[in-house]
Amino acid sequence: MNGLRAVLWTISLCLLSISAGCGGKEDKGDEAKQEVRVVPVTVAEVEIRPIERSVGAVGTLKGWDEVTVGAKKIGRVAKVRHDIGDRVKPGELLVEFETNDAELALDQAKKQLLAELAKVGVFLSEYPDRIPTEKEIMIENLPTVVQAKTVVERAEQNLVRERSLMSKGAGMRQELQNTENDLRNATAAYDNAIQTAKSIVVNALAAAVRVKIMAEAIKDMEIRAPKPTLAPEGLKAPLSYAVTKKSVSEGQMVREGDACCELVIENPLRVWLNIPERFVSEVKAGQEVRISVSSYPKETFPAFVTRINPMVDSSNRTFQVEATVPNEEGKLRPGGFVKASIITNKNARAVTVPLDSIVRFAGVTKLFMVLKDQKQARSIAVEIGEEGPGWVELLTPLPENARVVTTGQSQLADETPVVVKSPEATTPARDPAVTEKPVE
Fold this sequence. Notes:
Residues 19-34 and 425-440 have low confidence and may be disordered. The chain has helices spanning 2-34, 100-119, 143-168, 173-220, 432-435; strands at 39-45, 47-63, 66-70, 75-80, 87-88, 93-97, 222-224, 241-246, 253-254, 259-264, 269-276, 288-293, 296-313, 318-325, 337-354, 359-361, 364-371, 376-381, 384-388, 391-394, 402-407, 416-420. It contains 5 helices and 22 strands. The protein is of the alpha+beta class. Helix 2 packs antiparallel against helix 4 and helix 3 (143-168) packs antiparallel against helix 4 (173-220). The longest helix has 48 residues, at 173-220. It starts with a helix and ends in a 5-residue tail after the last helix.
């Protein structure tokens, strides 16, 4: 009996021990649930800064005007006055041709002109600076015309006398008819003298035209830089050409139309940019353009939109924009590759946050913010705009007293308790070239 009681007592003690052990573990679980981890983070204030919105593109520089000048006449090159790299003014002489044959032809045309004018009694000494016009040549004063007119007047007088005799009965009808025939012959001769004189005058004027043609042919034996009708807008320096190619040498025979020199106006320059169709409503004439080239990586060159092609290219869905690039210092070269940014809008009060505050995961862009009167982090999906060195524009509005989390985001969820700590004293500087928005 005593043994049975001892066994029952032992079993009771074991059950109590098991119950006590289970109760202790449940208490420890409750305490763990009550312990919540606080994440240390650093925060930054929202900044207001001016931001420019731009459309990026690439293009090729072109001269304001690129022209190939050629020979207007066949001939032999006598002298080449300029070579590649020379700067020439509009109208300046580039190439000279031999003019011996043209000068002889001009002299011959002048002699023929003198001969034709002499037939009508006109001498160039009376018109030293020009050729007389047809109205200035008095045909009635020519000897042949005067002589024919005198015969007509004599025949008219004879006819009057014969008619008077016939009226008195003293004349003969045959004599009257002869006198009338003489008047008709004299009148015809006079008209013929007038027509002949006019023909001589026309020949003289044609000879004068040939003189002008020969003189112009001598001018055509000189090749000069062209003179643009309209100068580029806003050009301050004198307009000039640069010789980019010389195609002839002295002594070379050149045919009519052969190229002799290639010229380019290098101040200002043009750049043609292909802009995506979605920016049609944003790009306008007169907008500022910033140009950058690889040869001057630390410089940007100003330009402005001058022309916009009204047609969209259906093959690539882009439209062409032309910008004028001043090049007074001559640093930019036609044919060079450029990156361009067209400034389409300027916002003086854009909201920006540090670039480190942006979290991108699974196609979602968000950030964590901490209100100044709270100790919990809240996540919010955001839309971003322009990027700069260490900052990004925020298009989604935030509460006025919000600060954005810059470190510790990987340990945060919505409404996670946080403690704000001071940022490290030394923060590595961000390379602007790395954070610069790539050109589209």
